[in-house]
Write a structure and sequence with these properties.
single chain; 225 residues; 10 helices
Length: 225
């Protein structure tokens, strides 16, 4: 193994013990590109920011859901107040709403609002990662392996990402969609845990299709407002 690959591997192993990860960079980029986001190349930026900001940003990337819980739109909206704050259980769902609010508030002031939108894009990608909803020993042990399931060729196979219709006209409807995808992702996470296995490529592509479809719906909503 070449020296630079060894260094990268060591960095990933060290960071895996201190914070959660999500899809690798190119998978995040593919979600954004498939959704039609013009600045798709910014989709991995929040993970770069997290490398410097640590837990303060990291808590925005996951939510530790106990077994048996059902994520509701009310829970999504309640988490919004925790955005960019310390909370050991994480608050991914609220970070989606919070980052969108930050974007909408900043947009009239100039083009740098797109930097804030990049956070929303990234969190939408994290939403479909099953192990971002079940932060336990199984998740910690298998996170990196699941993150890279389709990384090698995902950008070359955007046609395998299915975009299905979602219509959003309000923040409440967004919260409903976030809750729906969170429950689907959490259910797959529990299945992986119960069966002690990694995602298949088919499952991974199905998951990122949820993220890309939701992002497309948000982009269309923003264009209308």
């Amino acid at each position: 193994m070449k020296l630079h690959k060894i260094i990268i591997t060591v960095v990933f192993l060290i960071s895996a013990t201190t914070s959660s990860h999500a899809w690798f960079d190119e998978t995040h980029l593919a979600i954004a590109k498939a959704a039609g986001y013009k600045q798709w190349y910014n989709a991995a930026a929040p993970d770069i920011a997290r490398a410097k900001l640590g837990k303060m940003e990291g808590y925005n990337h996951y939510h530790n859901s106990p077994r048996g819980i059902v994520i509701t739109p009310e829970m999504v909206l309640e988490q919004t107040e925790r955005y960019d704050k310390f909370n050991q259980d994480g608050h991914l769902y609220g970070a989606i709403i919070g980052s969108l609010r930050a974007y909408v508030k900043t947009k009239p002031r100039g083009r740098y609002a797109e930097h804030l939108f990049a956070y929303l894009v990234h969190y939408i990608g994290d939403l479909s990662m099953p192990l971002h909803h079940t932060m336990n020993n199984f998740s910690k042990k298998n996170h990196l392996a699941n993150d890279g399931i389709i990384e090698e060729d995902v950008l070359r196979n955007l046609d395998k990402i299915r975009i299905y219709e979602i219509i959003i006209k309000s923040e409440a409807e967004l919260a409903t969609e976030v809750a729906r995808i969170a429950n689907l992702s959490m259910a797959l996470g529990r299945t992986l845990e119960n069966e002690n296995r990694l995602m298949t490529q088919h499952e991974a592509r199905r998951q990122i299709s949820h993220s890309a479809s939701l992002l497309r719906a948000i982009l269309e909503w923003m264009e209308r407002t």
